[in-house]
């Protein structure tokens, strides 16, 4: 009986050890299965050469598709720069590659035009930048393998202490005569005319060559070689904001205006015959007797453009070098032909027989009229009502010199070869 418990104990102990060894076997089998799964996920069989599943690229040999681009983009001015000059400071270059995209725009999305060089090594703007404006630059370059490298920067241009604008004529939306030039008078004398002229664009439909000419350092006029064609649409773009017109003085104007050329009217005054023939679209529609400048105060010869119209105005000889010879407070139907005081206007103080027979004025072209400009049947009223700013009045056969092209809007008196020189 003593042996039974021992035997029973032995059997019991042996059973527990057997179960433990069975558990170890199961864990080993599970681990083996896991190893097979991991081997399958790792790519299957070991490649020939015995490198543990790593190909040549994984060992550092051969071409690497995810390598960084060798192209280096450089943008000047540096990111975050302020008080940047509006001309000459913006530059984008690429080393060890070629630029493919360069975009420069202000905070409103307005883009700056520019060009990538033929060799792809640089980009430069084709116009100046605006003052006191933030710009964002985005540039992309590719290396010899076609891999891209990009760079983005932001900078702000200077705030000018001294500025200028241009006062222009004709007005936006107006209809003017065929002789009307685009004339711009600047509030400061310009010492870099090329930069200012480059920032002004004048175009026409139908297209015609239009060139600018400077009169002194504060006036720039534009015109075609010959009078505008009737019906032409003209557009003027003033992109002066940021242009350094003189050292430390910048334009602050960005404006677009347009005007239309009306019918063609060119009137010819013959000072000797004392007549004015009004030609409309190639036909003489009226011949009007006139009085021109007296022998001691002759009228300029030349092509003159009507620049202002006044139904009634005051004319004082003291303002144009004639002292107190006259001061007429109610000159009717007056239209300015020169800055020095030449007008075509109504005359109510001379006798009716004067017109067409004698030259008695102080240099103006006079037409018979009624005081107060109230009689529409008078020749001066007829001509005034049928004239617009920009119409041409040509004076010939006067015993005077030709009017200077800068005296009024009278650049037509300058030969085209000299105008474009």
From TrEMBL:
Domain L,D-TPase catalytic: 265-396
Keywords tagged on the record: Acyltransferase, Cell shape, Cell wall biogenesis/degradation, Peptidoglycan synthesis, Transferase
Record carries keyword tRNA processing: no
Keyword Cell wall biogenesis/degradation: yes
Highest taxon in the source lineage: Bacteria
Coiled coil: none
SUPFAM superfamilies (UniProt xref): L,D-transpeptidase catalytic domain-like
CDD domains associated with the record: LDT_IgD_like_2 (cd13432), YkuD_like (cd16913)
Region (Disordered): 1-22
Pathway(s) where this gene product acts: Cell wall biogenesis; peptidoglycan biosynthesis
InterPro entries in the cross-refs: Big_10, LD-transpeptidase, LD_TPept_cat_dom, Transpep_catalytic_dom
A Pfam family assignment: Big_10
Descriptive protein name: Ig-like domain-containing protein
């Amino acid at each position: 009986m003593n042996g039974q418990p021992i035997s029973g104990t032995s059997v019991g102990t042996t059973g527990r050890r057997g179960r433990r060894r069975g558990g170890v076997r199961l864990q080993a089998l599970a681990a083996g299965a896991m190893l097979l799964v991991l081997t399958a996920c790792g790519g299957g069989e070991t490649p020939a050469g015995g490198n543990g599943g790593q190909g040549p690229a994984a060992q550092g040999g051969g071409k690497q598709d995810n390598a960084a681009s060798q192209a280096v983009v450089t943008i000047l001015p540096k990111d975050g720069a302020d008080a940047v000059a509006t001309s000459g400071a913006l530059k984008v270059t690429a080393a060890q590659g070629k630029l493919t995209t360069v975009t420069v725009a202000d905070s409103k999305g307005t883009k700056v035009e520019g060009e990538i060089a033929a060799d792809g090594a640089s980009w430069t703007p084709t116009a100046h930048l605006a003052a006191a404006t933030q710009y964002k630059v985005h540039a992309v370059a590719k290396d010899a393998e076609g891999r891209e490298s990009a760079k983005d920067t932001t900078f702000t241009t200077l705030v000018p202490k001294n500025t200028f604008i241009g006062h222009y004529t004709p007005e936006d939306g107006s209809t003017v005569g065929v002789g009307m030039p685009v004339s711009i008078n600047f509030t400061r004398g310009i010492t870099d005319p090329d930069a200012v002229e480059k920032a002004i664009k004048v175009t026409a439909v139908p297209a015609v060559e239009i060139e600018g000419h400077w009169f002194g350092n504060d006036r720039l006029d534009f015109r075609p070689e010959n009078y505008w064609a009737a019906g032409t649409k003209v557009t003027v773009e003033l992109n002066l904001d940021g242009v350094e017109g003189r050292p430390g003085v910048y334009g602050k104007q960005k404006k677009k205006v347009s005007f239309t050329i009306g019918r063609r009217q060119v009137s010819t005054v013959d000072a000797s015959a004392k007549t004015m023939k009004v030609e409309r679209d190639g036909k003489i529609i009226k011949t009007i007797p006139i009085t021109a400048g007296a022998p001691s105060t002759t009228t300029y010869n030349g092509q003159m453009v009507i620049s202002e119209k006044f139904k009634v105005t005051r004319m004082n000889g003291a303002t144009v070098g004639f002292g107190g010879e006259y001061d007429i407070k109610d000159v009717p139907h007056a239209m300015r032909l020169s800055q020095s005081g030449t007008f075509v206007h109504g005359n109510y103080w001379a006798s009716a027989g004067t017109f067409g027979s004698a030259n008695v004025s102080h240099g103006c072209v006079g037409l018979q009229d009624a005081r107060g400009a109230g009689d529409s049947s008078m020749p001066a009223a007829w001509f005034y009502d049928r004239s617009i700013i920009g119409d041409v009045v040509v004076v010939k056969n006067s015993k005077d010199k030709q009017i200077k092209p800068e005296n009024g809007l009278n650049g037509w008196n300058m030969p085209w070869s000299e105008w474009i020189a």
